[in-house]
Design brief:
The complex is a heterodimer of chains A (146) and B (266). Chain A is built from five helices and one strand, in the order E-H-H-H-H-H. Chain A is mostly helical and 146 residues long. In chain A, helix 2 packs across helix 4 and helix 4 packs antiparallel against helix 5. The longest helix of chain A has 28 residues. Chain A is elongated, with a radius of gyration of 22 Å. Chain B has nine helices and seven strands, in the order E-E-H-E-E-E-E-E-H-H-H-H-H-H-H-H. In chain B, the strands form two sheets. In chain B, strands 2-1-5-3-4 form a five-stranded mixed β-sheet. Chain B has a two-stranded antiparallel sheet with strand order 6-7. Chain B is of the alpha+beta class. Chain B is globular, with a radius of gyration of 24 Å. The mean pLDDT of chain B is 90. The N and C termini of chain B lie far apart (62 Å). The chains are: A mainly alpha (146), B alpha+beta (266). Chains A and B meet through strand 1, helix 2, helix 4 and helix 5 of A and strand 2, helix 3, helix 5, helix 8 and helix 9 of B.
Chain lengths: 146, 266
């Protein structure tokens, strides 16, 4: 026997990221929560910056000039990515949380195939839609220059 | 059939001290479970190692632990099914640890008690038996196979970030009794289910269903429970009442009669 390094058990949000052995739905759960927090932060920043209009036209024009740069356009795109994922995955969760697409209660027979397998087509369709939206947004940003 | 050596890497915990990993080489053979390996360590290498077990056959749910990052039962995990030559063993996550691999499951049982995990009788007609159709049995049978091992609670990411969240096991138990046609306790249970730390915090990570050693599928139970709560909110929930006593029916001519009793009734 050998004693190796000492260690602390991770706790709280750190455990969302830990393990590395989550299923696909587990990772979607983590991304859903993180994208939700990101959108909430964006909303607060958005309200704050929009409020600059109250300081007059000069302040607003200066802010707009500062915002018109590629880095902020890319950050806006990340907000769009978070929105696209959170919205489509949220619709998927509403469907599942009303118990659609997960199959009826059934006798568990090994090897168990439960609700995870039943809802997977729905999850894949949702992720394809997210992918298309993210690609379209990226195309709009790069090719159209919006 | 030759023996191989696998390293068991165990997270040791002593109250008041920092956790530390300890490694034990174990000679393994086909058919050997993780629990067998722990027994061998205790007999031959380190008698101070602590874990909890009882039945050794996946029925009692005592030997739940995190095996290579995945909660499960030590007694039904084959050592040679794990591809790594090193097996890491930790106490169940999301529980206080008593010692080494022994979690304190009391918080889970407290939450379990809070959802009233028993049949609550409603209005019944005298001593008439509460009949149940096969369909009504199927509605809750899957969820009644839970052995309270705590694997789902250890896997739940919501419970990891909100210790007051009820967790998959108690929520599944709540649905198991709510869907039982002999039960009339939905209104009593929904008080604790509607709490801020309760069912609305589950967003179908489905980790609980992934690790459940009995195929109970807690994530499915929780989604059905949510649907029942929503239907109840809008007044559309149908109570799964007992099967009404019907007439014995008319015997069909094409079915032969049952043979006479060989032992006469007194």
């Amino acid at each position: 026997m050998a004693v190796s390094e000492k260690t602390m058990r991770p706790s709280g949000i750190l455990r969302w990221l830990g393990g590395g052995r989550r299923g696909l739905e587990g990772y979607l759960y983590v991304i859903h929560r993180i994208s939700g927090l990101a959108l909430l932060m964006f909303l607060m920043m958005h309200v704050f910056f929009t409020g600059v209009r109250l300081l007059g036209e000069e302040a607003w024009s200066g802010l707009m000039e500062m915002a018109n740069n590629p880095v902020l356009h890319f950050l806006e795109y990340l907000v769009y990515v978070a929105f696209a994922f959170h919205a489509v995955n949220g619709l998927r969760l509403i469907i599942i949380e009303l118990a659609f697409g997960i199959g009826p209660p059934d006798e568990p027979v090994y090897p168990y195939k439960g609700s995870i397998h039943k809802q997977r087509p729905l999850m894949l369709i949702a992720m394809v839609i997210v992918g298309i939206l993210i690609f379209a947004g990226g195309f709009d940003l790069v090719a159209m220059g919006h | 059939m030759t023996d191989q050596t696998v390293t068991f890497r165990v997270r040791r915990h002593q109250p008041g001290q920092e956790d530390a990993w300890q490694e034990y080489p174990v000679a393994v053979h086909p058919g050997m479970t993780v629990l067998d390996g722990l027994q061998q360590i205790k007999e031959q290498q380190d008698s101070s190692l602590a874990w909890r077990h009882s039945c050794r056959m996946g029925i009692c749910g005592s030997c739940g632990m995190v095996i290579n990052g995945q909660p499960g039962l030590a007694c039904n995990t084959q050592v040679l099914d794990i591809s790594d030559r090193r097996i890491s063993l930790e106490p169940l996550s999301n529980f206080p640890v008593a010692r080494d691999l022994v979690p304190d499951l009391e918080p889970m049982f407290d939450k379990h008690r809070s959802i009233k995990p028993f049949l609550i009788a409603g209005q019944q007609d005298g001593d008439e038996p509460l009949r149940q159709s096969p369909r009504q049995l199927t509605d809750y049978l899957q969820f009644s196979y839970c052995i309270k091992c705590g694997a789902c609670m250890a896997a739940c990411p919501t419970l990891a970030s909100d210790a007051d969240f009820l967790g998959p096991m108690p929520l599944t138990a709540a649905h198991r009794y709510n869907r039982d046609s002999r039960d009339d306790g939905f209104d009593q249970r929904k008080q604790s289910l509607g709490d801020h730390h309760s069912i609305s915090h589950c967003h179908y990570a489905a980790e609980c269903s992934k690790v459940c050693p009995k195929g109970v599928d807690p994530a499915k139970a929780i989604q059905y429970l949510k649907r029942d709560l929503v239907l109840d909110l809008v007044g559309l929930r149908r109570r799964p009442g007992p099967v009404p006593q019907g007439s014995p029916g008319t015997p069909r001519d094409d079915i032969p009669k049952a043979p006479e009793f060989t032992v006469k009734k007194p």
